[in-house]
Specification:
Number of helices: 10
Number of strands: 19
Largest sheet: 7 strands, mixed
Oligomer: single chain
Distance between the termini: 17 Å
CATH class of the largest domain: Alpha Beta
Order of helices and strands: EEEHEEEEHEEEEHEHEHEHEHEHEHEHE
Helix content: 25-40%
Bound molecules: beta-D-glucopyranose, zinc ion
Shape: globular
Number of domains: 2
Strand content: 25-35%
CATH superfamily of the largest domain: Medium-chain alcohol dehydrogenases, catalytic domain
Radius of gyration: 20 Å
């Protein structure tokens, strides 16, 4: 069957690869699930892998099948599977466990090992193909009423985890009632974080460079958050008017912004970093000021990668509630479908060149 793959380490090696059909028997304990792939989303990570900045092939292979944002329908299940049945819509988590204690209790996104395993990214093949098989532990059911949001399940899981982690660590405060959040970046993670924070009742300022009106700015407004164009208004001006933030989520992909934001966090607040930055950039920071303010203000910096199945479930709840609260807004993120695996060049072109493409995804098959 067909798959979109790269040769990791070789820049711009994206190609169509013939791979063997997966078999349910490859999961020997009876908990296997065979999924027909319907749609797969791509993002900056796929671009970085094709640029040979990131990612590794599975042992014994000279190629890596791309794709970590899956959406499909169950075709067949092993005899012991209880969580899903044929005909259910599903997505799948990205990371697979290594050997640490965190891996063994299902929190593989918190592995303490240096090597991590991620489908479509590192050491495991991804979902940009026609079918895949996995253990039911990594398969998450998508309610049929959300099937129009298909490939957003994985990005939403990353946003849901980042915010859940922030609330989790803030239990140190005994009482924490965050009121104001800044979300940096209005790409998919920025927008989905905006959604999750709005659903928790925060006043949200989502900041990005572009001057409105853009699709992102209108989605932000649709979520009843405030879009701030940093080409017109500075963060200092927002702070002068509304105060510092209790919670900041950085999803810009710019390490420079991630550090800069340390100046705008309020007392007892949390700054969450979510971007993977593959480069070698360095930047200057106001280190004395930040150091002083962070100690005097008990502030916290939190990195958040990826998600386990609990975060997928959390994210799916947010998407469901989001659809009821802000009908029709979230699906506007899904801007650029690509017709079939054969169109892999167009997929990369959109990802690399089209600044207006908020979300590129491949329509692999219809039901
Ligand atoms: C994916 C995550 C993954 C991360 C690092 C992101 O694009 O969405 O699931 O853990 O890249 O590899
Ligand atoms: Zn991703």
């Amino acid at each position: 069957m067909k798959a979109i793959a790269v040769h990791p380490g070789k820049p711009n090696s994206v190609h169509l690869q013939d791979i063997p059909e997966p078999s349910l028997d490859s999961i020997s304990d009876g908990h296997g699930v065979l999924v027909k792939v319907l749609k797969v989303g791509v993002d900056a990570t796929d671009k970085e892998i094709n640029d040979a900045l990131y990612g590794n092939a599975p042992p014994g292979f000279d190629y890596l099948v791309l794709g970590h944002e899956s959406f499909g329908v169950v075709l067949e299940v092993g005899p012991k599977v209880t969580r899903v049945k044929p005909g259910d819509y599903v997505t799948a988590t990205v990371r697979r466990p290594g050997g640490s204690i965190y891996d063994r209790i299902g929190t593989y996104d918190m592995t303490s090992e240096e090597t991590y395993y991620e489908r479509g990214i590192n050491l495991l093949h991804g979902y940009l193909t026609e079918k895949f098989v996995d253990h039911e532990d990594y398969i998450v059911r998508v309610p049929s009423g959300l099937k129009h949001l298909h490939v957003l399940m994985e990005p939403m899981s990353c946003a849901a985890k980042a915010i859940q982690q922030a609330y989790e660590v803030q239990r140190r405060m005994r009482v924490w009632r965050p009121r104001t959040a800044f979300v940096m970046g209005a790409g998919q993670i920025g927008l989905l974080s905006t959604l999750a924070l709005r659903l928790r009742g925060l006043q949200v300022f989502t900041m990005a460079r572009s001057a409105p009106p853009t699709l992102s700015s209108s989605i932000v407004e649709g979520l009843e958050a405030t879009y701030v164009s940093l080409s017109k208004t500075s963060v200092d001006e927002v702070v002068a008017k509304h105060g510092k933030a209790d919670l900041i989520v950085d999803a810009t992909g710019s390490s420079n912004v991630a550090f800069e934001m340390m100046r705008y966090l309020g007392h007892n607040g949390v700054l969450v970093w979510t971007s993977i930055t593959g480069g070698e950039r360095r930047s200057e920071v106001h280190s004395d000021k930040v150091n002083l303010e962070w100690v005097l203000g008990n502030k916290l910096l939190l990195g958040s990668v990826n998600a386990n199945s609990e975060h997928f479930e959390l994210g799916i709840r947010d998407l469901a509630l989001g659809e009821l609260t802000y009908p029709g807004v979230i699906s506007r993120i899904l801007t650029n479908p690509v017709a079939g695996l054969d169109q892999y060049r167009e997929m990369m072109r959109l990802l690399v060149e089209d600044r207006s493409a908020l979300k590129v995804y491949v329509d692999v098959a219809s039901e």
